[in-house]
Amino acid sequence: TGAEGRTIGSEMPTKRRSSPSSLAPVFTVLNAVAFAGWLFVLYRTILLIHPTFPSIPETLVDEVQHQILFLEAICVVEVIRIAIGDLPGNLVLGAVLHAIRLTATTQVMPNPVLASHWTAPAILLSWAVTEVSRYPMYIFPDSSVCRNVR
């Protein structure tokens, strides 16, 4: 931690670029797609676990894995934008977070023993709720409501 009691490296840049990217409309559409995608993952996960709860279907991870990988690819674009200064954010946090998600999605959760464990839907639901609450802030950057929900 620094002299003021803050964790070193935790400061998030608050200054936005002076001129919006010429690709801003593309990124807005990409964010809307990601928002819809995470809503689908949330809906699908609930739909799959509800009828069998507390048992977890072994196919749960397989049912949403491709969608999650697609959505994580969108997140990688965001991390790249942070790295080049086109989007404010914590580069280290973003890179580590999405590396962990990609590893969990491709290496850990597909394990048959873990796929039917209660932690698989807990992880999927936590990711989906996090992203569903985060993406409106990117789609409507001037909305204080969206920032507060995040």
Structural account:
The chain has 150 residues and is mainly alpha-helical. It contains 6 helices and no strands. The protein is globular, with a radius of gyration of 17 Å. 17% of the residues are buried. Residues 1-18 have low confidence and may be disordered.
Low confidence ranges:
1-18
Residues in helices, as a percent range: 55-70%
Q: Would you list the SSEs in sequence order as H and E?
A: HHHHHH
Please give the count of helices: 6
Average pLDDT for all residues: 84
Rg (C-alpha, Å): 17 Å
Short structural summary:
With 150 residues, this protein is mainly alpha-helical.
What are the salient characteristics of this protein?
mainly alpha; 6 helices
Helix/strand layout:
Blueprint: H1 24-49, H2 60-83, H3 91-108, H4 112-115, H5 119-139, H6 144-149
Helix pairs in contact: 1-2, 1-5, 2-3
